[in-house]
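Following up on my earlier thread - several people asked me to post the actual chain instead of describing it. Fair enough. Here it is, all 245 residues.
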Amino acid sequence: QLAEIAKDTIKIYTVKEYNINNIKYAIQVPPKPKIVTQKMIAQLQAQTYTSKVETKNIDCVAEIISHRGKKIAVLNFANPVTPGGGFLRGAIAQEEAICRCSNLYQSLYQCPSYYESHFENQVYSSHTVIKSTNTMFKNEKFELIEPLEFTVFTQAAVIAFNADKEKAKKIMQERIEAVCKLIGQQHFDVVVLGAYGCGAFANDVQNVIESFKKSITFINTEQITFAVLDKHKSGLFDQFKKAFE
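Reply from S.P.:
Thanks for posting it. Predicted structure:
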């Protein structure tokens, strides 16, 4: 079923329009994404800011939609070698959820060099980030909604389950700092983060939390939300909530 929803999403943004109650909505082709390299990020000037931070046990898509009318940014937990991860085959993860409800896949597909750079070394791949402007047109239940524009920062976490633990921790710290500095180069009303790399990539949860604690001060925003959907009560949401509230 999710694979069919993916096909429908692609069909909608390919024809560039859709109808809700006989009202026609247009979807613009997303602007060409910007690939920001590790070298470019290293040259960024970072300032520090104070933001309201909250943690919600909520789907990332639902959280984005709840801020309609605001300038929104989201960190997409990327698959390092495949645009959209398992989006086309109906996989369930944060990146796939965003792709099912927006034209993010259309942007990621335009960045083959990003994925090629990860083929040889998925664990310790570069800190490269894809920045794209996208349109969301479905909600978390895959119902059509009025179009909503948001900015996506796509970065792969370390694949830690087959890596040296200490090295993986250090690289995750560097990667989180890098993407927070990049997001902080412009102002957003709200920034949606989450349990980055804490699922299938098996990164150390406390290390990810501590890395975010140190780095979210670089983000220029009024509000940061950690959208940590924990349907199975694994304790992941509780760890983030305890850390940030």
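The mean pLDDT is 94. That should answer part of your original question.
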